[in-house]
């Protein structure tokens, strides 16, 4: 177990003479025992970052520090880390027991009996104790992934590095394995860096999540902070499903003026906006309230375009004008039925809005977590 620090880490690939900056000056401190999820769209530099931590990729500049020691430049075998990949990379001709023992036999001086007992205990912990004599071809995808995990766990490393380990599994198994992996990591207390492009996985698994875009670190935060207090437009749009609604507006004194509607703002919001003239108003779908009638400053007449029933809730796509494509989405209770074409008043409460500087993307105003706890007490 150890803390892991990325200190201004940069990776530049040479692509036929032109530079590709895959990872751009990324610094993250990961605490001992922490589960950190690296998340972002495809090509944002997640795997490259992980591979640099593993020592599988050289670092163009910056340092990686593991347990108080700089490991930059050390080969993978001298870093005391274990990796789990999307492809299980099991040896097909070896049994589960042999796959799990192999690394220990090769790289440690543990006695055979000791290896055997570690492998058996780990296999029991992963509920694959009865599969030890089977070959990978005789296992389901989920079981193969458990073997790959087991192989990493028996090495008792300082850090686990996981690169989309669950993406080959079907949805149900994936969500089951998510919970199991989290419990396992908590029990073992091993510092873990987990890469995924799936924001749901990031939200549900991480102690903290690090959001990358285009090689640049956007924010490192707890899942709830990233959701309610995104640092910028990118994070706000990436985290959450359906995504946050955005409207481009211009500041005009005590109101924001947009193509579709004007939005009066309080003195407090004006102060948050400061000198910014082009702002983007963001509102989470669940914060849009749909009411039958309303003439308040933040009530807007809309028409239901499409209703997407999810069971527990309905995603209602709304247009400001009849027959226009939907402008935004509201999430409401699943038992409440609305019909396409039905007029409805959408309320966008000022305490729930986010504002971003459209030119820089930086957040100007977020809904505060303390405010949220006050308005929505949770038992
Ligand atoms: P992610 O894991 O987030 O999908 P990667 O870390 O694999 O992203 O890639 C980040 C960027 O670096 C991408 O633009 C990718 O095309 C580029 N890249 C990755 N590996 C190489 C390589 N060996 N040579 C050149 N460019 C690469």
TrEMBL record:
Pfam families: ABC_tran, OB_MalK. This is Sn-glycerol-3-phosphate ABC transporter ATP-binding protein UgpC. NCBIfam families: PRK11650.1. SMART domains: AAA. Its main location: membrane. Transmembrane segments: none annotated. Keywords: ATP-binding, Cell membrane, Membrane, Nucleotide-binding, Translocase, Transport. It is a peripheral membrane protein. Residues 4-239 form the ABC transporter domain. It is found in: Cell membrane. One of its GO terms (molecular function) is ATP binding. It comes from the Archaea. The keyword Cell membrane applies. The lineage of its organism: Archaea, Methanobacteriati, Methanobacteriota, Stenosarchaea group, Halobacteria. Signal peptide: none annotated.
